[in-house]
Amino acid sequence: MTIARRQFLKSAGLGIAAMAAAPAHAWESKAPDDPLGCLVDVTRCIGCRKCELACNQVNNLPAPESSFEDMRVLDAKRRPTAGAYTVVNRYYPGPVGERGELVPSFVKVQCMHCQDPACVSACVTGALSKKENGTVHYDVDRCIGCRYCMIACPFEIPAYDFHDPLTPQVRKCTFCLDRLEEGKNPGCASICPTEAITFGKRSTLLDLARGRIENDPSRYENHIYGEHEGGGTSWMYIAGTPFAKLGFPGVPLEPLPRRSETIQHALFSYLWSPALLFGGLALTMKMLTGEKSNPDKE
């Protein structure tokens, strides 16, 4: 058994060394050069929920249980669902107003339409794709309902239509793709009464965000959320409060597919992983067989 164990460890070590020596996969970003996007200025949002209303109408979504004028829904934190592609949440991160009351901040939540989307990388059928105009598009005809996209998304956005037992879909913000192709702005950006949402080219939005921060540093945090998070997103935010206090998740700055796709390629290039697996199983069986045939041998 001592020789068998040594042979097993030696073989496994050689296999791992060979896998490590395999040529590294050069990951390539699939991000568009200068896609369309939206900049959300949290300091301008008044929590009116008009963006929710526009999203509901543009996408022909079911009517909510309570009207869009009912502000009591802001008492609980919400996430986008199969019937609501965008929601507004209220936070009380400070500061304190003139009368001693906490001043609320309102945050619109929807698909971030990442530059290199983890959901697209995880989708095994190509049902999700990144378009040149910046949208992360969902093709229901290709979806098999595996829901890997829901697991992969660092912003926890895709929702599953569990209420439809026959033709369930993964649902999320579409970035109003049909409107974009007609030369129109997204519904939420068109209806916002305070112009908290600005639509345009991503590079232009970044310049606008930097300009606002530089011109009024006491009003804004020196941080554009979405400029680098997750490798960059088409939806970006500026705020007067640290983003961690506004419910924004802390995600890696590098594109998540860079990690997952590189690891996958390293594991399966030249079939090293299957070779190690079956080789290890064969050696294990040999060791067990030898032990049964020679029970007294040490």
UniProtKB/TrEMBL annotation:
Assembly behavior: Heterodimer of a large and a small subunit.
Signal peptide start and end residues: 1-26
Keywords: 4Fe-4S, Iron, Iron-sulfur, Metal-binding, Repeat, Signal
Cellular-component GO terms for this entry: periplasmic space
4Fe-4S ferredoxin-type domain sequence ranges: 36-66, 102-133, 134-163
Protein name as catalogued: Formate dehydrogenase, beta subunit, Fe-S containing
Matching PANTHER family: FORMATE DEHYDROGENASE, NITRATE-INDUCIBLE, IRON-SULFUR SUBUNIT (PTHR43545), IRON-SULFUR PROTEIN (PTHR43545:SF4)
Protein species of origin: Desulfomicrobium apsheronum
